[in-house]
Amino acid sequence: MRLVGHDDLQGRSAYQPIIHAQGNRWIAYVGHHGGKAPNPLTGKVEDNGTSIVDVSDPAKPRYLAHMPGEPGEGESGGAQMVRLCSGKTLPQGQPDKFYLLRTFGNSAHEIWDVSAPEKPALVSRITGVRDTHKNFWECDTGIAYLVSGAPGWKTRRMTQVYDLSDPAKPRFIRNFGLVGQQPGAPDSLRGTDYEMHGPIRVGNRIYFGYNTFLNGVIQIIDREKLLRGNPAAKDPYEPTDDNLTYPVVTTLYTSPRLGAHTTLPLLGMEVPEFAKNTEGRTRDILVVVNESLRNECQENRQMMYVVDITSETKPWGMANFQVPEKSGDFCARGGRFGTHSSNESMTSPYHKKLVFLAYFNAGIRAVDIRDPWSPKEVGYFIPAVTDKTDKRCIRVDGAERCKVAVQTNNVEVDDRGYIYGVDRANTGLHIVELTGAARSIAQP
């Protein structure tokens, strides 16, 4: 993999990037963790929020605007999550508009008009929530699955379903979570042991991941049943045990040492190795990525897992992938080592061929999953530290020990084939491309 371009994102701790074509331009939107930094465009110190960068020429990214987020540090501030829909696609959107859905710290969800990326304008805001996190927005229907903490629920984060087909008029549909998390549930059901992290929808299925580090839960949900509610109930959306169970296709509890930060469905994969078999040549798989949380390997190793979901009610673990620690002496480099997330784009030339992983101090890793039983690495890129890279610390024998290390936090790809990684330790946005044999995997 080769570095194409870089932007320091004003030295802000970055979480989630998305990249979209807007007219004849390609625009990257990057959500940030809490904190603050000077904005040279305004001459002011601003709370971290959302960076908007023109990446039409990936070798020369151009910073367009910064949208301040909620005051606070880490996950208590900023505006970590971003999704974007075109008004041409949203059922009640204005055809000449582009709309950005983002979190506002831990207290709100916001929709912005970013048709002119240099001048974003607030459209609407959803308040009365807490602990907002990784949303998913269906551009073709406007349905959004917002990750929030709702009043009375016994978990920090669950799912709130909204109709955002008209971005100016958000319409609440229902709250949803695991049995035992709803208001009034007995504490013995341990609903507080699990919290929603993020959903991904494909067709009539939604793939939910709960907990990122330990005690993970993977749920496959029937979307139609979730939106319609239980017809046998007096109130089809009331969070009773029956109503919360009604749309569930399957629930898979992971090993206690595993989480489910990202659950990426890759459906209808043709497996070349099975081409001559009379059955089983096409499989549905779920790429599950756990999150590393502790610096310098003071934890269970976190990695990518592959789950066969061809038979939805009987998912089966089939493979894993990890970067050997010895290959880069990663436990001694400082910061976190291990997976955090995968790319989520399903329209790029890499779909069902390559998965890109954010691996913290091991950078961006490109994994060939065409044979999902035997995923293998075909490329990687580890960014260099800069004068903006922040230190990461642990306590050793009662004293604090700090090291400076990159922390590639999230990755995404665009339809042109460029790969984007953003850094948790303030090093910025890295735009890379594949070279050599790895590049040929994505060719038609």
Strand content: 35-45%
Main CATH class: Mainly Beta
The CATH architecture can be given as 7 Propeller
Number of domains: 1
Helix content estimate: under 10%
**Integer-rounded radius of gyration:** 21 Å
Task: List the uncertain runs.
Answer: none
**Gross geometry:** globular
Average pLDDT rating? 96
- Count of strand segments: 33
Q: What characterizes the major β-sheet?
A: 5 strands, antiparallel
Structural class from helices and strands?
mainly beta
Kindly identify the CATH topology.
Methylamine Dehydrogenase, Chain H
User: Distance N terminus to C terminus?
Assistant: 19 Å
Tally of alpha and pi helices? 3
How would you sum up this structure in a few lines?
With 444 residues, this protein is mainly beta. It has helices at residues 223-228, 241-245, 436-440; strands at residues 2-7, 14-22, 25-34, 36-39, 44-47, 50-54, 62-67, 74-79, 82-86, 98-104, 108-113, 121-126, 136-137, 143-148, 158-163, 171-176, 196-202, 205-210, 217-222, 248-253, 262-270, 282-289, 304-308, 316-321, 337-342, 354-360, 364-368, 376-381, 391-396, 399-404, 408-413, 419-423, 429-433. Helices cover 4% and strands 45% of the residues.
Structure keywords:
globular; Methylamine Dehydrogenase, Chain H; mainly beta; 4% helix; single chain; 5-stranded antiparallel sheet
Topology:
Elements (H helix, E strand, L loop, with lengths): L1 E6 L6 E9 L2 E10 L1 E4 L4 E4 L2 E5 L7 E6 L6 E6 L2 E5 L11 E7 L3 E6 L7 E6 L9 E2 L5 E6 L9 E6 L7 E6 L19 E7 L2 E6 L6 E6 H6 L12 H5 L2 E6 L8 E9 L11 E8 L14 E5 L7 E6 L15 E6 L11 E7 L3 E5 L7 E6 L9 E6 L2 E6 L3 E6 L5 E5 L5 E5 L2 H5 L4
Antiparallel strand pairs: 1-33, 2-3, 3-6, 3-8, 4-5, 6-7, 9-10, 10-11, 11-12, 13-14, 14-15, 15-16, 17-18, 18-19, 19-20, 21-22, 22-23, 23-24, 25-26, 26-27, 27-28, 29-30, 31-32, 32-33
